[in-house]
Specification:
By secondary structure, the protein is an alpha+beta fold. The protein contains 4 helices and 4 strands, in the order E-H-H-E-H-E-E-H. A two-stranded antiparallel sheet has the order 1-2. The C terminus is likely disordered.
Length: 104
């Protein structure tokens, strides 16, 4: 079944795929299904994306996301209110993790 998702502003393609499929394994399908032209997309207000519910990789995580209104969002362009985000990373945070290994 096709489901539709309206993400918050500031999400990347990785966030979108994780919110829908809970895995990046179906990124190419997500890109094709949603006619995404550039993988450096940053969501804006009101955008809607689709994904197939029968292809969700991990239903336990998906249920947690839905039941708790969690969202994967790296926070690019995100406002300061980020109470229910599972993933918020920026260069300041990444630079303190693993001695800059994530930035190279």
């Amino acid at each position: 079944m096709t489901l539709f998702y309206t993400p918050p502003e500031g999400c990347t393609i990785y966030d979108l795929v994780l919110n829908g499929y809970t895995s990046l394994n179906l990124m190419s399908k997500f890109i094709r299904d949603n006619n995404i032209e550039h993988i450096d997309i940053i969501t804006t207000a009101g955008q809607t994306f689709q994904y197939e519910s029968d292809l969700i990789y991990d239903f336990f995580i998906f249920d947690e996301i839905v039941n708790n209104d969690y969202k994967f969002c790296t926070g690019k362009g995100l406002s300061q209110d980020a109470t229910n985000y599972l993933l918020i990373e920026n260069t300041d945070i990444l630079s303190t993790e693993g001695d800059n290994l994530f930035l190279t």
